[in-house]
Amino acid sequence: MTVRAEETSGAGERPPRLDADVRPLRRDAERNRQRILTAAAEVFTERGLDASLDEVARAAGVGVGTVYRRFPDKESLIRELFRERIDALVTVAEQCCTAADPWQGLASYLEFAAAAMAGDLALRQLMMFGTYDRDQVCYARDRMRPVITRLVRRAQDSGDLRTDFEATDVKMIAFMLGSVAEYAAAVTPQVWRRYLGMLLDGLRPSRDAVAALPQPAPSADELGELMRPRGQRTAPRRP
């Protein structure tokens, strides 16, 4: 990096000015950073928190040294990705709080949160176990608790949600559905939506009729396949 000082009249010297050829280097560095973040999101989503920075570097098409120059350790990379995920959940929850139908707002958020947990192994590990980085769990709790509480109170005030439901139940429902999704992913990856439908029906204080479920139950063959160790499953995966 070349730095050149220029003289000025009567006021000493101007602060050092970066040459123009530095800017492309900074753009390249930012592009590499974004490539690393994109690749890391894919790797950790699929492989979970045990994935290494070597795997991230290969997926990004950069050397592992480049990864370490942008992120000093795996924890700092995971921290940035995790906060992006939490901020996205909060944004959706805030949007759901403005829904004209409070019940639909709550149901939409539950579906979004469950889908996020179902499709992201690293997010499930961080949110469900909380042993990897307690600071991030606290960040998630502090960011999400107020808006989730508003979602729940709106649905209760409109008479659409049973009065004994608590904001903490939202997280437990996401955990349950995330566990179902992880267990069934290789055979019936969308079956968690069936159980979300059942749960939503049970959250109503009253109803005229049961709602149609969005997914069929696992067949006997599929259930038998799910009972086998993951490495021994052979049945075709349901769409």
Automatic annotation (TrEMBL):
Record-annotated HTH tetR-type domain positions: 30-89
Basic and acidic residues: bias regions: 14-25
Keyword Cytoplasm among UniProt keywords: no
DNA-binding region range list: 52-71
Gene3D superfamilies associated with the record: Tetracycline Repressor, domain 2
Keyword line: DNA-binding, Transcription, Transcription regulation
GO MF term list: DNA-binding transcription factor activity; transcription cis-regulatory region binding
Annotated segments matching region Disordered: 1-25, 211-239
Descriptive protein name: TetR/AcrR family transcriptional regulator
